[in-house]
Amino acid sequence: MQQRHRSWLILAHAHVRVGELQQLLEFFGDVESATAQPRSRLTETGLSVEKCNAIASPDKHIIDKTMAWLDHDAHHLVAWGENNYPEILAQIPGPPLLLYVNGDIEALHLPSLAIVGSRNPTEGGSRNARDFAKHLASHGFSIVSGLAQGIDAAAHQGALDVGGRTVAFVGNGIDRVYPAGNRKLAHSIVESGALVSEYRLGAPPERWHFPERNRLISGLSLGTLVIEAARRSGSLITARLAAEQGREVFALPGSIHNPLARGCHELIRQGAKLVETAADILAELRPLTKHMLDTVDDDYSRLRKHLSFDPVGIDELGKQSGLTIDQLSSMLLILELHGKVESLSGGRYALKEPLQA
Fold first, then answer.
1. Is residue 85 domain-resident?
2. Are residues 121 and 198 located together in one domain of the fold?
């Protein structure tokens, strides 16, 4: 596994894109073989000279530093094409080759909603972000945002307040917290979700990183909710990307006298769904979570055989079904959303109504 991690890091530091990776795999079979090739063989794949040089002569110092970072139990690499890579993220244009994750990878595989908005919201805007996040997190959704001040921070905190999951995509290296004022929040997110970055360790928060990472916020999510945004804002970029990715876009209307409502009103005019309560979002997203179950029908069938009206612990379900705890957690949450299963104390689950065969 160590050599595989090294190979992925070499490719990521060479700025290899997913399409280019597929070319390398066609030539050499796997990432370990690809990164073991001399420069002359790599150029035969059509890869640029700069990238071939970076693969053949990698920066061992930064790779060794990252390998040391991976020694921590909560630190992970999630590589495109591997089992722990979120399927929903793999579907977007330009998916990241590699993700650095600090926290629980399971949070990346739950049905998710992005909540974004102004960095300088009104008190009411912050309250709305917290309240929507609380309600949706309590219904099993992972809340996704960007760890910025304002609406982002309020959304993350709302999910944490009810013991829910939240994911923060950052525009810098995973070993840094930006803005520094959110350091305490970042540590809390690691305990109940995950910090995620596509940038190498030590990467500074460059200005262009933030529009790039916005495609990941929307890409991991079934829908994006915008709360308070001016007409020219990063939140509207996230909403546009969500629409381009085929995701739902929601906007919370506001006063015509509030300049931070104008971006939301513009989105509504362009076809975003106007929402007034979290129930409006749940009504739209529940059918999509059912589709997520349909896509794992074989695993769902295995789980169905071991669920009954008698409570059973998730560990026992894992032993009986052969499914991992991560798989079970995601599937059971989706079943809860549809009122099929109830979560009981002690990590136990029981049917609320018969499951169809």
1. no
2. yes
Integer CA distances (angstroms), 15 to 49, 51, 78, 329, in order:
12, 7, 16, 34
DSSP string, 23-66: HHHHHHSSHHHHHTS-HHHHHTTT--HHHHHHHHS--HHHHHHH
- Give the separation between CA 354 and CA 357, rounded to whole angstroms: 9
Range of the domain at 271: 105-287
CATH number at residue 342: 1.10.10.10
- Cis omega before residue 205 (within 30°)? no
| In a shared domain, residues 191 and 239 | yes
pLDDT at 297: 54
Are 201 and 276 found together in one domain? yes
Phi and psi, residue 270, nearest 5°: -85, 0
- What stretch of H or E contains 78? strand 75-79
Find out whether 37 and 13 touch, Cβ atoms under 8 Å. Answer: no
Residue 348 main-chain phi, psi, to 5 deg: -105, 155
Number of domains into which the chain is organized: 3
pLDDT in tens, 48-89: 999 999 999 999 999 999 999 999 999 999 999 998 999 999
Q: Would you say residue 294 has pLDDT above 60?
A: no
Indicate whether 295 pLDDT > 60: no
- What is the phi/psi pair of residue 217, to 5°? -60, -50
Give the CATH number of the domain where residue 112 resides: 3.40.50.450
Query: What radius of gyration do the chain's Cα atoms show?
Result: 21
| Inside any domain, residue 72 | no
